[in-house]
Amino acid sequence: MQAYVFVLAGFVGFLVIARVPPLLHTPLMSATNAISGISLVGSLVAAGAGRSVVSTVLGTVAVTAATINVVGGFIITRRMLGMFKRSDRRPSGAPKV
Amino acid sequence: MREALVQASYLLASVLFILSLKSLSRADTAARGVDLAVAGMAIAIVGTLMQQTIIDYRWIALGLGVGTVVGIPLGTRVPMTAMPQRIAIALTFGASAATLVGIAEYHDHRETLALGQRIAVAFEVMLGSLTVAGSFVAAGKLQEVLPSKPLTYRGQNAVNFGLLAVILVILGAVVAGKGGMPMFYTLVTLAFIAGASLVLPIGGADMPVVVALLNSYSGLASAATGFAISNNVLLVSGALDGASGFLLSMLMSKAMNRSFTNVLFGAFGSQTQVVAVGAGSDLVATPISAEDAAVQLAYASNVVVVPGYGMAVAQAQHQVRELAELIEKRGGEVRYAIHPVAGRMPGHMNVLLAEANIPYDKLYDMDEINGDLSRADVALIIGANDVVNPAARTDPTSPIYGMPILNVDEAKSVIVLKRGMSVGFAGIDNMLFYQPRTRMLFGDAKASLVKLVTEIKAL
Lengths: 97, 459
Hints:
By secondary structure, chain A is mostly helical.
């Protein structure tokens, strides 16, 4: 069942990501990085389930690391995409191909 | 009931993540896509915090707080030129989270883990630990804290392959449930050493492939976490991340003319040999003065700028924009031809130009503009070398033969901004510089551009 989810998600991911133009490949990496901060959900359980000292300590460090990626990753992706602007004026010379 | 809500939040988050990546297929919808992903993340976090297994929120609050405080400056302060090392550091953080969760899981549950879960945890910590060290070394090289030149020694490949073989044996032992915690920690440690040892021999210009590949590993590590703790949203986002990294590293290796196996098994960037076709023969490159180059650019109606990493190093993108605006004011058209490996990570050059307020509709991928370069009155090469070397098309003995290049040699005239006649990363001479239609404007890229701008203004 899990293998099923993994393979399907990988397949969908491949199709969707293949359509991202090279123009946006850096924002793509930055965005997938922020999204992979979702490992936070695993870290939260390790940090908060009170299973053992080892688990709580490692979990807390993992929560910190994942949060850095989520917060920093989304902010920088947003900031980067804000820089991509269309030209408002057409060059007066040769027509654009 | 509560469990169903948690699962529903994960499903919703997964859908939002996929939609967010889909929005990235167009520049005008991309920013909205990030908002979708943020919403997905928030939903998944709230969903997780509702789980009954979580009984203590103090440590969670600490981690979330510290992570936010560290994350904000990493998002707002890091300059775009530092994006490659920023991504590499993010891969280090992401992979550490996966590795630590894997260690905690194995530590608490190793007696009761089913075979499938043992396989998942073993892969999780192996890939995670390898990525932590590999990304850290890559970040150090990109930041030039570590030497960006390949660090090699005799028998390096044998050592690395040996190390990988030992790791696979220990992985097998962990999966078989043998050796307890010591065996498990040995796996983590050896994978860490292997990560560093595999990236150290790789040169700075090969980093786009490496960073993309590490991205893929980090995605797989987080998908393995999903398998280990039966969490679907982790599986989905790990698969997306893995697919993205895999796809990008394939594109990059194709653009650098390396087979994917060559990339996977390292040893790249170390086999450079200097083949100077110009030296020794009587080929002479023709220099041009800034004044003459300015006149040529000012009266051109179709200019194509080819930016390379040299432009980024000189921080000259703002001067490039200024020059382009002057040419446009005089009635010329300026476009930018971008090779996939211009810069230090996939798409890096586009971001650097966008940051300098160059509109993205003027940025053209190699495939989009190659058929049209013969129409260009002037091709202005700024700090690019190997990616415009016609030997890749014409000389089967050249080390870069077969690499896709920008066909600027077809332009009506070529002006190359270059510090001197040194060779490019591949260590080979460039016949483009000796073409009758090519002129060399020697000097620092930024200084030359400032001169061109002043000259055109004075016309």
